[in-house]
Amino acid sequence: MKTLNIIPFLIAVVIVSVSNLVFANDSKYMEAMQKNIHSVYTAQSIADLQTAVNTFERIGAAEKTKWEPFYYASFGYIMMSTKEKEAAKKDAYLDLATTSLNKAKEILPNDSEIIAMEGFINMIRVSVDPASRGPQYAALTMQTLNKAIAIDGNNPRALALLAQMQLGIAQFSGLSTAEACATTDRSLEKFATFKSDNPLAPQWGQQMAEGMKSKCQK
Amino acid sequence: MKLFYSAFLACILVTGYSQTRISGKITDERGVAVPLANIVLVDTYDGTTSDTEGNFEFTTTETGTKILLVKFIGYKDFQREVVLEGKPVNIAVPLEEMINELEAVMITAGAFAASDESRRTVFKALDIATTAGATADIAGALNTLPGTQKVGESGRLFVRGGDSNEAKTFIDGMIVLDAYSPSAPNTPSRGRFLPFMFKGTSFSTGGYSAEYGQALSSALVLDSKDQSEMTRTDIGILSVGGDVAHTQAWSGGSIIGKIQYTNIRPYFGLINQEVDWEKAPVSLEGSSAFRQQIGKDGMLKVYGNFNHTNYSLYQHSIDDYNSKFLYELTNNYRYLNGFYKQSLNDKWMVRGGVSYTYQQNDAFADHDNIVETEKGIHAKTVFEGSLSDKVELKTGVEVLQRSYDQEYIISDGDDYARSFDETIAGGFAEADLYTSNKFVTRAGARLEYNDLMNQFSVDPRISLAYKTGTYSQVSFAYGKFRQTAKNELVRINPTLDPEKAEHFILNYQRIENNRTFRVETYYKKYSDLVKYENGNAAAVNNAGSGYAKGIELFWRDNRSLRNTDYWISYSFLDTKRNYLNYPYRSTPTFASKHNFSVVYKYFVQSIKSQLGFTYSYTSGRPYNNPNADKFNGGKTPAYSDLSFNWSYLPKPYLIVYLSCTNLLGRDNIFGYEYSTQQNAEGIYNGRPIRQAAPRFLFVGIFITLSKDKSVNQLPSL
């Protein structure tokens, strides 16, 4: 009789393996992504960021239909650009950020988060050479961010980036920062209420908005 | 039973969870470790990133045959099949360098590129617009670069001992027959095209691509902007007139229309001029640019402008100031340029265009009427692409057809007319061969057939560049160039051979994080220059010749001083030629031995202003004194100028602009002109050619109306 006991055991093994095949793939994806999203948020050096970006690229290439790995790879490259000193290399990282983001865009077109990231890239482009790029890229940044906000008015990151750009322009031309500060407040409100069904949804940007808030209160 | 269970579990563990360890080392072609490369087991999450020594190691539970992919920026992907069966796998990964724009050596001999898109250029479009003393004139700004000789009374580009007609302008690859607005005798003319129209400027002082023909000394290649992103209206209120422009943008396209009226009369009423104007210049100019993206990779650009200018002045006799006659000029100009580019696939693109220039000078000198008309059509198609990642090819064909006509309607004598038609059919091919990111050879040739003298010609061009360090490189260029002689010579003898030049250029350049240093030396040999037979201007041949050689230095730094950008240029020139009426080889009157300039730009945040200063110095130029024995033996005093500009941005959509040339009010003398007849004492009377006024003061207010209030006209100034 004891041998018969093996049958349910075997069945259990089979069921577990099969179900693993069905949704373990997704939980494996979730787990790998969550771990690596944490890495990209906390990475301090270009090397750590590149390591995280490499992992996103591996996951993205294996999965093929998920936009998140490319979105976060793009984010990682933007962060690398901000840490790099040399202008030509900053641009090279931004080019890679754009390439990754375009892959995300192909999978999920017209997404507010992805378009906000495009605005983020344009904004960093301005900072590489404000004098000669300012006029063109500043307008382009505003345009992209406004598009992201038009798609989803509740996207706190799009608002935070817009506030950042408005603040930059106001400071450059010595104008009132009232508009930028109002956008900051709107962004913080949206951060407080931000909810997403997607556990991998972007979380970044709140600190940036809080930083601007404290500048506004001065 | 327990044993059975354990054995069964062990079995499952071994088959299901068998692990393979994959390790290796990643190096480049020179054996140097490549850190941070991405190691990917294709179609799985497994993989890792190489460490600082290029080593990597990871384990995978995958089994069977898989592909291991290694990738890193600047290198070609590496792929290898691996068999995963539990045995450790060790792979040495040699990565092969990719030829890429960022790392690869560039051909810089003779070339100054200004672009907002390409990253390693010496100049940006905005730099041209904000150079003091240039008042937003392209030639004015380029005159602060090495290789140019300032000729204050002309305003045109004179490059390396060449006459101004040896420097040609191309817009989107298409030739412009006369790139300058008309100006009164001995007053500087301005370029017809404003810097804000272009996203890239490439100014070559020699050794340029086989794509460009009909230029002996210099090619100024301007790339017009793609579509505008934003609907806006720009208004300019200038001390010498006004302009209004409107841009309508839609997704994938835009159209710009601009109209400008310039009237310098009120200004000349206030500030005394050396020139005896009857009617100071008035001009009306309109331009329009249409841009449309076609499909995903196509772009259509159409640009057109018209200009109507009129002025009249009294020319006084050198011998007797009270003897004067009226000179009146009306100039009509139209330029139309259509350009199309299309990517054929990810490796090849085609671009082509047609340009049409019409220009007419209708002049009255005393009572004689001289009407000079020139029309030209230029059509061109170019294919560009890569044969492999190490070979890039550019090849194209073109036709330039122009007709010239001059009519003399003489009040006291027989009228006559002289004209000619010229058709040039050309083709060129040029290949860039990269041996590595460090070494490139560009070899090409240009074939031309000219129907005026029924002649075929082949002109070779070759350039080499070698990267000597991360930031530095040397390059060399050689080329043969030809150009049909000036209209006023060809109309006398239409079978004249083209004039020819040979360039040899050696360049060293170092660009490191916003600091640029360049040194360049060259030798240029002229042959077949047009010469008067026995001093007779009515009979011309190709017996002339000449040379130019020199050394040039350039330093630019916008890093060391906060909010400050400056550059310094110095050119040494030694040139002589025997052409036109020269009895023997001598230095032409437009050539100066030493040219020096400093451009300084400073942004002052507290007053929201950019301040700019430009200082230029040009050593004395030769002039011919017919009373002296030696031809071109005289020498003018040195020229110097300190100019200033101030851009003030009180609101993001408003700019106030002020500029003044020659702050110190120096009385510059450009040369001397002499009477054609001896006076009673047997002496030719002479007088100096001076600036029309010591200073030129310009004030403008520029307003931009758009939905987005953060936009201003700064890039258009």
TrEMBL record, chain A:
Gene3D superfamilies: Tetratricopeptide repeat domain. InterPro entries: TPR-like_helical_dom_sf (IPR011990). It comes from the Bacteria. This is Tetratricopeptide repeat protein. The lineage of its organism: Bacteria, Pseudomonadati, Bacteroidota, Cytophagia, Cytophagales.
